[in-house]
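# nightly structure sweep
# worker-07 picked up a monomer target from the shared queue
# config: single-sequence mode, recycle default, output format = structure tokens
# input follows
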Amino acid sequence: MPAKPAPIKKSPAKKAAPKKEEKPAAPAEPAPAPAPEPEPEPEPAPAPAPAEAAPAPAAEPAPEAGGDAAPAPAEEQKPAAEPAAPPPPPPEPEKPKEEPTSEPVNLTLEDVNDTTLTVKWRPPENIGASGLDGYTVEYCRDGTQDWVVANQELIISNRYAIKNLTTGDKLHVRVKAVNPGGPSAPASLEQPVVVREIVDRPRIRLPRSLRTVFVKKVGDTVNLVIPFQGKPKPQVSWTKDGQPLDLKAVGVRNSDRDTILFIRKSERKDSGKYEVTVKVDSLEDKATITIQIVDLPGPPSSIKLVDVWGFNTALEWTPPKDDGNAEITGYTVQKADKKTGEWFTVLEHYHRLNCTVSDLIMGNSYSFRVFTENRCGLSENAAVTKDLAYIQKTGIQYKPPEYKDRDYSEPPSFTQPLNDRAATMGYTTKLLCAVRGNPQPKILWMKNQMVIGEDPKFRQITSQGLCTLEIRKPCTFDGGVYSCKAINPHGEAVVNCKLDVKAVQVPTDK
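# output follows
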């Protein structure tokens, strides 16, 4: 090997070590990793590995190993030749390079017809510190690699329409994001697109508010927007009650996506069923819209004063001839005293065709009028009674009504019978039952079919139909069958029970 004469130049090797400490060598210093392991120096290491990795260990222990054996200079001979040249200066820190963004995402086909192709996409996920300048859209025919830039200048929008294409071409489309770092990787459509008109079945998307009767007042503006879809551009036509529209009274404006029916100042004659038809070739879709223009109703046709009695007046009237093209929701009745002539409302939102007006003042004369009401409000005019209702000042004679007396009489009956009982000798006991009847029945208590009468041993109580027989300190002789008998002019009733009186048994000592 040519490095063997290195042991003769031992002193330069010692000087090389301090130089290496002053300035680190950039290219040759990935090996200082073994520097903290100088201990295994006396052991012979394999020649190829330490030959490159030993510069640092050989320089540091050199002053200590001046009298070492021959293996030490053998390790130093390789690093002695390398540090002979001055190490290059450390490179200056490089400025961060500007990198392009990631590719745009979600590139999809939005629309296509016979000359135009429209795509849309989402911004890149990673834009970086350099920002985003715009996008370029490119396309090429299927089977070729001749990419054509569709936009001459960068675009900021995430949507672009490629125009002036040839019908029938099969194109690949891709989009790149551009920033100071250059264009990004392209985002491409998965499948090539054929440039042709796609026939889409026409469909009217009628708003929910127009699926029922559309009501407006006379003089209001009607502006109906009916969206639809279909390709190519559908043909739109309108009819009213099966007849073509009068374009002098009704305006129609059509676009690619909707049609507008406009009436500047509506009248009642504009009410009816309007039908819109959207047609593409032989396919069509229809929708019907019912428009109702309403107005204030007319007054009731007639009104009549039917009767006057006491402080009351009865009125009747007939429905109006003109309901204002809307349902009649009620009537308002007013009265006016002849002396003052001021009108006061008696009834509002009244639904019947007759009423009774009460609480009129004695000696006054009254006139009445009735207004009709619908969803637009009260009629401008009212139907007024021709005759006056005069409340006379006659004296008031009260005749109480005659009522037939109700017959509440009924024979006696027991609602709660007597129950058999067992009593202990020497302990007072009671027998209870409940009876009803009209007139109030007379109560008789009996023992073994014998009337008890005024025997002081027994106490008889009758209150609110509850009959009680109290037997004071009964003995065995008081046992038997007890009866309660209720009697009134309409009949009688009897209930029985059995009473057992038991003697107290005193235990005897054996």
